[in-house]
Structures are given as C-alpha cells and as structure tokens.
Write a structure and sequence with these properties.
single chain, 450 residues, mainly alpha, Rossmann fold, Glutamyl-tRNA Synthetase, domain 3, three-stranded antiparallel sheet, 12 strands, 47% helix, elongated, binds glutamic acid, GluQ/Sye, aa-tRNA-synth_I_codon-bd_sub2, tRNA binding
Length: 450
C-alpha cells in the first residue's frame, strides 16, 4: 500500500510550487490505490497560524485534492520526545552550545582557508564537567544529530536516479533548539515512520535533507521510504519568478480558473508527457508516471493555463457551469456562448450584452443613419438559421449600402452591444434576437448627433 504525504508549514498561503507537490503526491497515491495524507508542519509555534491551516485544507478541497487523513506535528510532540530519548541513549544526538555568532565565525575561518564550512563537532569533546559548567551558567544546549561517517548514503531517486552522499562532507544537523523546540528534519522522519509513509515526493531543494534523513531513518531502526525529488518550478519566461511564490488558489479563483486546468498543467509540466486539459482527476491519475519527470525546471506558463481553462470551458455542461452563470442564462445560451469563453466568468459580460440594456456611444450622422436604416433589414431577414444571422445581416447591408469592413461592422457592433469590441457577433446576435436587435439599431439611429 502506497502512502504519500503533503507536509506544508502553515506559515502562509500555499503557492503554485506547494500545490504542484500536493498534486503529485495525491496522484502518486491515488494511482496505486493508496493513501494521500496531509501533515501540518506546525512545530514553529510563532509563525504557524490556524487561519493558514484552514486555508490549506480549503485550497486542497477546492483543487480536488482532499487528503485521506491529516496529522499535525504540534499534536505529536510526545512521539518526538520518545524517539529523541532513544537516539540520545544510542548516542546519535549530542549537546552543543555554540552561539550563532560563534558558528558563523567558524564557518568564515574554514571558508577563508578554502575548506568546506562543515561543523567541526567540537561539542562532541565536551566533558561532563563542561556540561555542568554550562548548566551552572544557565546555558541550555541545543542538540545535533550525529551523522555516521562510516555509513555510505545512497538512494535510488524516483526522478534523479542513483544518488550518493558522503556523510563526512556534511554538518551534523541541529535537530532541537535550546528551548526544546524542534527543527524540521527529525520530526519529519519520526512522522514518516509513524504514519507509514512509503514514498516521499518533494522538491529538489530537499535533496541534501534526504541524505541526512536517510541516516535518521536508520538510526530510528526504520527502513527509509522511497524518495523522489522534482525539479523546481519556474515562470513562463523560464526564470524563478517572485510572482510564482505568491500566486495561489485565491488568485486562481479570482481569475475564474477551473481547478482541473491548474491540475492538468501542474501534473504534466516538467514531464515528457503532453500537457492536455483533463476533465477529472481520474484522467490525470491514469497517466501519472514519475519516470516521465525530467531534471530540467518545469515551466509554469499562465498563457498555457488559460488555454487549458478555455478547453475545459468549451466542453463544460450547462449543469456544471450553471451555479456560476448569470441568472436566466439557459442551456441554449450557454452552448452558444461557451465556445467563445476562456473562463466561465466571462459569460457575464456576454449575458449583459444579450439582455441589455446597452447604450450606444455617439455615432457620426452618417453612421447613425446607417444603423437606424439597418433596423428594417434586421427585421425583414430570416432568423431561422441562427448561426448565420450576423452574416446574413451584414451581407444584406453590404449589398444595400456598399459599406464594408470596419465601416460596416463597427457601427453595427456599437449599436447592438454598446462597445467596440467583445464577444463574437456570430454567436451573440442570435441570442440578442430579432426584436432586441431591431430596437437597439433603431435607438442608436435616432440619437441626436452631437
Ligand atoms: N514542511 C516541509 C516543507 O514545507 C516539508 C518537507 C517535506 O516534504 O519533508 O518544506
């Protein structure tokens, strides 16, 4: 049974990168009929906020990524304590007292000698007396995990292939602060073991954490899960963009985007598979395959997102769109307008133009005379072939007046819709209908000229 987890810190809103990680973990689990868990990484009590926890849940629900279970780290402190005691008894964690400034100085000295800035393990040499001395001074220790320099670190990454790390080239990570609070690394392993996580899929910024965590799993007598690290997400221009770091579900909703457009894009960018609009999660799940993920950054292109969104809207049933459509917009209107929309929310603009009232901007005397006279043609013509009404009207007027191009189309559009741009008139005119069309043309024609 595959069990994956998405482990955000509730210190802000989820952004596109987080959403992508959540999606991939959900797909990985669902494809295998497994479980997708949400783990709230809220050990940082100061920065974690309950409203962010709620927003994370709501965002996942909206995206269709509702997890199969949830744990939160702040409720699991007793578990960390137990595991920590075991590591302590086994000598895998040790006390250290260096201040941030002292550590910084050590790093600078090493860098000055062109040596890697690895922690020198000075604290391992402290005697019981030294510890007593610090205690007497009121200095509490922080704790480091002691890497095993003799144990080779290797894993077969689900995306990056075979990985090798040399523990002696890494610093023993601080796992616990002097105030007893936890840093991310160790609780994450303890949870992965306790929650039965079989697959950890996360961004490649975690690769070196994985190297350390693999030793933590071993020290905790547990087999490490499978790991896969995906390439970073970049903007459409191919650069890491600040905007991506702040774009989240709220923006997508505001832009009127479909969750499946977002999922369709995020599931496939960075893979060798084509990006296609999929209507539901099952369709995405079927094709999900880590072996198609590449090492190059995944490009998140907003234009592509909108294209996918349009495709989904063009295939959307009236019943699915209805809750978001303006009052009175029936199935026939939806089916007529649908092919012209990029977003469901764009329907509002169309409907306003259809139902009116519209106000034609001032026309020249000539144009006013032209549209006014067009009302008769609009009334006289055959409206039974709906898709051909605009063509029929403009053809008839072209014949009658010799007008063509912009001189023909623009005054009509202005009179019929009140604006010089917007929805395709072929689709719009049948919805406006004979009576409203004639009335609007007449009204625009009878307006006094300036
Ligand atoms: N809370 C961690 C983060 O957001 C979790 C990383 C992980 O997936 O282990 O970076």
């Amino acid at each position: 049974m595959i069990v994956t987890r998405f482990a955000p810190s509730p210190t802000g809103q989820l952004h596109v990168g987080n959403i992508r990680t959540a999606l991939h973990n959900a797909l990985l689990a669902r494809k295998a009929g497994g479980r997708f868990m949400l783990r709230i990484d809220d050990t940082d009590a100061e920065r974690s906020r309950e409203d962010f926890v709620e927003a994370i849940r709501a965002d996942l629900d909206w995206l269709g990524l509702t997890p199969d279970g949830e744990e939160r780290q702040s409720a699991r402190l007793a578990l960390y304590e137990q595991a920590f005691e075991r590591l302590r008894a086994a000598g895998r964690v040790y006390r250290a007292y260096e201040t941030a400034q002292e550590l910084d100085l050590k790093r600078k000295i090493l860098l000055g000698r062109k040596l890697p800035p690895i922690y020198d393990r000075a604290a391992l040499d402290l005697t019981d007396q030294d510890h007593a001395h610090f205690a007497a001074e009121g200095k509490a220790p922080h704790w480091r995990f002691r890497l095993d320099h003799g144990e080779a670190i290797a894993w077969d990454d689900g995306i990056r292939g075979p990985q090798h790390f040399d523990a002696s080239a890494m610093s023993d990570p601080v796992v616990r602060r002097a105030d007893g609070s936890w840093l991310y690394m160790l609780p994450s392993c303890i949870d992965d073991i306790d929650m039965g996580i079989t697959d950890v899929l996360r961004g490649e910024d975690h690769v070196s954490n994985t190297a350390v965590q693999i030793q933590m799993f071993t020290a905790l007598n547990a087999p490490p899960p499978r790991f896969a690290h995906e390439a970073l997400l970049v903007g459409g221009e191919g650069k890491l963009s600040k905007r991506l770091g702040s774009t989240g579900v709220a923006d997508f909703r505001e832009q009127g985007l479909e969750p499946m457009a977002i999922n369709s894009l995020l599931a496939r960018i960075g893979t060798s598979q084509p990006v296609e609009a999929k209507q539901d999660m099952t369709a995405l799940t079927d094709g999900f395959d880590l072996s198609t993920f590449g090492r190059a950054p995944a490009r998140f292109d907003e234009a592509e997102l909108l294209r996918l969104n349009a495709q989904l809207v063009h295939a959307m049933d009236h019943a699915d769109a209805a809750p978001r459509l303006p009052e009175g917009m029936d199935e026939k209107a939806w089916l007529t307008i649908r092919p012209n929309l990029e977003r469901v929310s764009d329907a509002r603009e169309w409907w306003q133009v259809v139902t009116g009232p519209v106000e034609c901007p001032e026309l020249s005397d000539e144009d006013a005379a032209f549209v006014g006279a067009s009302a008769d043609a609009a009334e006289a013509m055959d409206w039974s072939d709906e898709s051909g009404t605009w063509k029929a009207l403009t053809e008839a007027l072209k014949q009658a007046t010799g007008r063509k191009g912009k001189a023909l189309f623009l005054p009509l559009r202005l009179a019929l819709t009140g604006i010089d741009h917007g929805p395709d008139m072929n689709a719009l005119l049948p919805l406006i209908g004979r009576d409203r069309a004639a009335q609007r043309l007449r009204a625009a024609g009878s307006r006094p000229a300036a």
